[in-house]
Design goal:
Length: 105
């Protein structure tokens, strides 16, 4: 499911808020294209942390793209535009299957 609205339409109210900012000369579309190609080998610290958190239950092959693995464990792409990518999961992705529910129902 891909929603064609903005993040503010998807989540008009939230429980927690984070704001991150980095200045770059690269256009947002190029940054998102790079994020979509990112593998576990590219972000070694995240790879180690996810393996610890999942207690080895997740198969995080270093050559796999991170976003592909996130979708495989239950995350859903809610929005994808030229300058925004929104993923969500209503579950504990490191838990056994069946513990949680999908955003679509």
């Amino acid at each position: 499911m891909v929603h064609d609205g903005s993040l503010d339409e998807l989540l008009p109210r939230w429980h927690f808020r984070e704001h991150h900012r980095r200045t770059t000369n690269v256009p947002p579309s190029a940054l998102l294209a790079a994020v979509e190609q990112l593998t576990w080998a590219d972000v070694r610290v995240l790879h180690v942390l996810m393996r610890i958190r999942s207690a080895g239950r997740l198969s995080l092959a270093r050559r796999h793209r991170i976003l592909d693995d996130m979708v495989a464990i239950g995350f859903v792409v809610l929005d994808r535009s030229r300058d925004e990518l929104v993923l969500a999961a209503l579950r504990r992705p490191w838990a056994r299957r069946g513990r949680g529910c999908s955003p679509s129902g």
